[in-house]
UniProtKB/TrEMBL annotation:
Annotated source species: Actinoplanes italicus
Residues with N6-(pyridoxal phosphate)lysine modification: K294
Molecular function terms, GO-annotated: aromatic-L-amino-acid decarboxylase activity; pyridoxal phosphate binding
Protein name listed in UniProt: Glutamate/tyrosine decarboxylase-like PLP-dependent enzyme
Protein keywords: Decarboxylase, Lyase, Pyridoxal phosphate
The keyword Iron is assigned to this record: no
Family membership: Belongs to the group II decarboxylase family.
Gene3D superfamilies documented for this protein: 3.90.1150.170, Aspartate Aminotransferase, domain 1, Type I PLP-dependent aspartate aminotransferase-like (Major domain)
UniProt-listed PROSITE patterns: DDC_GAD_HDC_YDC (PS00392)
Length: 456
């Protein structure tokens, strides 16, 4: 054994304690850590020849890289839709690395059974039915890809083509319809060989990002009975708008289509008594995407995909080799996802659900919604600031009377918060997305105070 490895093994308890102590100090300072300032350039180092051991690596990380890391785990990182990590989820993440399970199959470990249990809990939490099965994947992009891949297989089945065996060339052109599709949908279509141009945008309601169901019906009618894929939104990126899933489902009485719902973070509306109606109909979708490192507040990376058509999922992703178990009634996960080897992502979700239950996570969701509404209300008191849409859930989308790129830099360099720019209906805007378990209304007040100061 290499001398540094041998020394680290002998000193492992102390090394883990030192790492634990440093991690605790980082977390303890999150509230006041600069949220996302522009990091200083770090000169490149050469590849170590012999290595410095774990203690040396920790010291080097603290010196060179840690100062430039953002406070994205903290309460005022409002860019993108980024959750933090609950204490239980962090414990689960540490144990995920310690046990180092390859959660791809069911032989020799109970890891796959733990994933089954966690998926079933999430299915119940989001109000899906027992006919929905699921699996963990890396994020919303991969969850959307899996759902659309199964939908592609379903389209082929309607046309008498086994796409998984014959390829997309045998399938011919297919149509994907959506009102305000997330960028990951286009990326998934590209990776699946369907092409970004397969998505045909459908008109949205006036001053909304929600699809106009009448326009969707007309687009389906124009296909003259050809099956399609419909991508519905349960929470758009800019304004967290929701398609009327129940109304879309009624179109199945007239037209054949696969319904995929992108509920990356909007699916968590199911936990809020005041907003659960927004996801009515989710249980009848053919496939559903939910991103867990957003509002479930587990570490990157973790998402889950659901489908009511596991047989088609196996057709797409099955992995046959002499050394692997064949597909059975309860398929191994390497028959269900793009990855063969895969981290036990489910353990962090299992820990946080076990620790805090539905009630605890409901409080995280409703707290974020309250903070978003508070910021929205207070922004209207700043001259020139305009909300571009109602605060429907956890995102505040607003315009400002100044140059946005300069303001974004000023906000970031203040260290107080981090917001991301966007464009909504042709207007440059800012987004504040609330999803961190630590965030409180007092944090919304600090963001408001900063913006008032910078826009004075």
């Amino acid at each position: 054994m290499h001398s540094s490895l041998a020394a680290d093994l002998a000193d492992l308890p102390a090394l883990l304690q030192a790492t634990r102590d440093y991690a605790v100090s980082v977390l303890a300072g999150l509230d006041e850590r600069p949220v996302a300032p522009t990091p200083a350039e770090v000169p490149a180092a050469t590849l170590p020849a012999d290595g410095a051991g774990t203690a040396g690596a920790l010291a080097e990380f603290r010196r060179r890289w840690a100062p430039g890391f953002s406070g994205s785990a903290g309460p005022r990182y409002l860019g993108f839709v980024t959750g933090g990590t609950t204490p239980a989820a962090l414990a689960g993440d540490w144990l995920t690395g310690a046990f180092d399970q390859n959660a791809s199959n069911r032989s020799g470990s109970s890891a796959a059974a733990l994933e089954d249990e966690t998926v079933s809990w999430l299915r119940d939490m989001f109000g899906l039915g027992p006919d929905h099965s699921g699996a963990f994947v890396s994020g919303a992009t991969m969850s959307n890809l899996v759902g659309l891949a199964i939908g592609r297989q379903w389209i082929g089945e309607q046309r008498g083509v086994d796409v998984a065996r014959q390829g997309v060339a045998a399938l011919g052109e297919i149509t994907v319809l959506s009102g305000t599709a997330h960028s990951s949908i286009f990326k998934a279509l590209s990776m699946l060989g369907l092409g970004r141009d397969a998505l045909k945008p459908v008109a949205t309601l006036p001053d909304r990002e929600a699809v106009d169901v009448a326009a969707l019906a007309e687009a389906l009618k124009e296909l003259n009975g050809r099956p399609a894929i419909v991508v519905a939104n349960a929470g758009t990126v800019n304004t967290v708008d929701f398609d009327d899933l129940r109304a879309i489902l009624t179109l199945r009485e007239r037209y054949p289509f696969w319904l995929h719902v992108d509920a990356a973070f909007g699916g968590f509306a199911a936990l809020s008594p005041d907003h659960a109606h927004l996801v009515d109909g989710l249980a009848e979708a053919d496939s559903v995407c939910v991103d867990l490192h957003k509002w479930l507040n587990v570490p990157y990376d973790a998402a889950v995909q659901f489908t009511r058509h596991r047989d088609l999922q196996v057709s797409v992703f099955q992995n046959a080799a002499a050394y692997l178990p064949p597909v059975s009634g309860d398929p191994d996960f390497f028959h269900l996802t793009p990855e063969n080897s895969r981290r036990l992502r489910a353990l962090t979700a299992w820990f946080t659900l076990t620790a805090y239950g539905v009630a605890g996570h409901r409080e995280i969701v409703t707290g974020a919604i309250d903070a978003a509404h508070r910021l929205g209300e207070r922004l209207t008191t700043i001259p020139g600031v305009q909300l571009l849409a109602p605060v429907r859930l956890n995102v505040v989308c607003f315009s400002v009377p100044t140059d946005i790129p300069s303001l974004v830099h000023a906000i970031a360099d203040s260290g107080e918060t981090f917001l991301t720019p966007t464009v909504y209906r042709g207007r440059p805007a800012l987004r504040a997305a609330f999803s961190n378990w630590r965030t409180a209304e007092a944090d919304a007040d600090r963001v408001h105070t900063l913006l008032r100061k910078l826009l004075a």
